């Protein structure tokens, strides 16, 4: 079963998170432990044999590389990064996918480039991160103000603007996680897929999924017939719900997806 999972706050957590229990560190930054899985989550993915997990993340290739050894140790080979614009296969960008992303985002390119030049004139070079033609973000202590400015000054039909507490992200509107998940599903020949995610970035992916797992803050954005709302430690609850879902698959994938989409 194809399973797309967001990474930060869905599969892994920053060292800043106070989550009880044992941790399995999966990322280092500047010589320090940066991100971890809970022991429950790590154990589930080490043991499971029925899902094909594919990370689908807003992290760029360089950020994902810090996690790659830990995920490859789980047997995970593919990852969709930069909001799905780049397909990594054992850490190497797939050239066909890259070219297709350039073509898909062509109609948004002018607005994306204009926004990038606008931001370059506003912030210091070390706060602007742009490593591929599909996404840039700004590290700032004034994320809300910069976000509001960009939303006001750019064309939402061609540019997607997101923010968290410390960063503002800009991406071509056409390159969202839902579109990437569908592209991968078609290319790999899978009948359907399950998805898990926790933020605004993930909503297109969750909406396009046959079954999706989301935290309590997102249900209003996802059709009721396909969502499973998870409370508690999100990554651990995902594992619990996936274990339950496997039991329902005894009737076959088609019956499973039909039952959960009616």
Kindly describe this structure.
Helix 1 (39-47) runs parallel beside helix 9. The chain has helices spanning 39-47, 61-65, 68-72, 95-104, 109-120, 143-153, 177-188, 203-208, 234-248, 253-260, and strands at 2-5, 13-14, 23-29, 32-38, 52-55, 78-81, 86-89, 92-93, 128-132, 135-139, 159-163, 167-172, 193-196, 211-215, 227-230. The model has no long low-confidence stretch (mean pLDDT 92). A hairpin with a 3-residue loop joins strand 11 and strand 12 (167-172). It is globular. With 262 residues, the protein is α/β, with parallel strands linked by helices. It has a five-stranded parallel sheet. Strands 9-10-12-11 form a four-stranded antiparallel sheet, covered by helices on one side. It has a three-stranded antiparallel sheet with strand order 2-4-3.
Write the layout of secondary structure elements.
Layout: E1 2-5, E2 13-14, E3 23-29, E4 32-38, H1 39-47, E5 52-55, H2 61-65, H3 68-72, E6 78-81, E7 86-89, E8 92-93, H4 95-104, H5 109-120, E9 128-132, E10 135-139, H6 143-153, E11 159-163, E12 167-172, H7 177-188, E13 193-196, H8 203-208, E14 211-215, E15 227-230, H9 234-248, H10 253-260
Parallel strand pairs: 1-5, 1-13, 13-14, 14-15
Antiparallel strand pairs: 2-4, 3-4, 6-7, 7-8, 9-10, 10-12, 11-12
Helix pairs in contact: 1-9
């Amino acid at each position: 079963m194809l399973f797309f999972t967001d990474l930060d706050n869905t599969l892994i957590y920053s060292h800043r998170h106070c989550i009880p229990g044992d941790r399995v560190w999966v990322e280092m930054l500047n010589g320090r432990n940066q991100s971890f899985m809970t022991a429950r989550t790590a154990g589930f993915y080490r043991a499971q044999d029925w899902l094909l997990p594919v990370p689908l993340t807003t992290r760029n290739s360089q950020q994902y590389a810090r996690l790659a050894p830990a995920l490859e140790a789980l047997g995970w080979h593919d990852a969709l990064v930069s909001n799905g614009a780049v397909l990594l296969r054992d850490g190497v960008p797939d050239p066909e996918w890259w070219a297709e992303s350039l073509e898909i985002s062509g109609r948004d390119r002018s607005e994306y480039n204009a926004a990038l030049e606008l931001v370059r004139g506003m912030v210091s070079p070390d706060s602007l991160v742009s490593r591929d033609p599909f996404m840039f973000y700004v590290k700032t202590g004034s994320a809300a103000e910069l976000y509001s400015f960009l939303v006001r000054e750019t064309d939402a039909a061609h540019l997607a603007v997101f923010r968290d507490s410390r960063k503002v992200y800009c991406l071509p509107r056409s390159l969202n996680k839902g579109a990437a998940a569908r592209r991968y599903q078609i290319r790999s020949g899978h009948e359907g897929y399950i998805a898990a995610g926790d933020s605004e970035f993930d909503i297109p992916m969750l909406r396009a999924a046959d079954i999706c797992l989301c935290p309590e803050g997102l249900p209003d954005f996802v059709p009721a017939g396909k969502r499973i709302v998870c409370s508690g430690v999100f990554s651990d609850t995902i594992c619990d719900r996936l274990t339950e879902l496997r039991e329902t698959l005894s009737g076959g994938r088609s019956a499973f997806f039909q039952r959960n989409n009616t």
